[in-house]
Design brief:
Blueprint (H helix, E strand, L loop, with lengths): L1 H16 L55 E4 L7 E3 L2 E2 L3 E3 L2 E3 L7 E3 L6 E8 L14 E5 L3 E5 L34 E8 L2 E3 L2 E4 L2 E6 L2 E8 L22 E2 L7 E9 L15 H20 L3 H11 L6 H19 L3 H6 L1 H16 L8 H12 L10
Antiparallel strand pairs: 1-16, 2-3, 2-6, 4-5, 5-16, 6-15, 7-10, 7-16, 8-9, 8-15, 10-13, 11-12, 13-14
Length: 393
Amino acid sequence: MQLYRSLSFCSLTLCALASTALAASSGPRFYGDPPDDHHPWAVHDGNRPQPKVVTPGTFSSQEQAGKPPSDAVILFDGTDLSKWQGDKGDAKWKVENGYMEVVPGSGQIQTREGFGDCQLHVEFATPRKVEGSSQGRGNSGVFLMGLVEIQVLDSYDNITYADGHAGSVYGVSPAMANVIRPPGEFNVYDIVFRRPIWKDGKELDPGYVTVFINGVLVQDHARLEGPTGHMGRSKPRPFPEKGPLALQDHGNPTRFRNIWYRPLPPRPIEGGTDGYLTTEATMAKRREIAAQIRKDAEGLSGTSQMLRYLESLVYEKNEAAEQKVKELGNQYVAGLKALPNDQLQSKKDEVKSISGNFKYMSKFNLLPASFEPAAALDQMIKEQRWDQEKKKK
């Protein structure tokens, strides 16, 4: 029943705001808990931007690579190495049948353009013919920003040191499971990477990596300890904002296909506005939202304008906006009082909805309980005995 009542309070507001810029993402207002010192948005905030629409891709089979999602940046689609380079000039790896293959001794390759935080997709197959053992079988590596290696290895029925198996953060964090397919079959890496963030020589966020192999979680938000390396302990240090994706030549003809990434939005610590923010960042965002709503309100009139100005007060106290709400609210009440009784009765749901919005503001101390238009509407509801009607269940 509480849900029904709350939604009825905001129904008029939704209709009034549907055409405004910030309100394009339809949703309830005057509903969930308002913004606070660490969250610039209300709970279930109708002003909060909608997620962007992304067309999902398709899954791969052994015979054919899947299709990336619509917003992916394609690094290798099986046709050429135009987005890659070697240590000295163009990449020298072989491309055929939709995959690239390491040419042993030709050196690592890396993307021509760098990127930072990302969702990364890479598919790889170790040689079907098994040669060598331990680190000598199908060895390669996916180097995030050219600095953090997610190991590529033929770990199928192969014993090696734990932090060197496929799916390990090389030399740092072993994979939680060995789910590598038999030699010659393609495996799928899905990686979520967040780089370390430093400021003024201090580490603010160590960075993390999450890795799935063939749909199985093998690194669970593993903390980064700096660039990885062989035999030496990783040590934290600043990373650049962007770096290339590198693939290693370790002397084995390992194959790769269907490589793409999706950039990730900034974290709160670097200016993102979703999640738990500092008070300073929260208040700045709340001022920005309120200013945009007030701007929207300028293009409206009457009740719609009143409600939009009222909504701006959820995010920021503003004397001019509060005075505008009071002025328009008093005009609205005066207009109601001038109506014949039958016309006033037709306004019942509207009046109760707007009164509910004022009650929301008063509940969270966003307006004084004695706010004149709110008190007048409350009195009208009592006089008309609309508050005594049986509540819907």
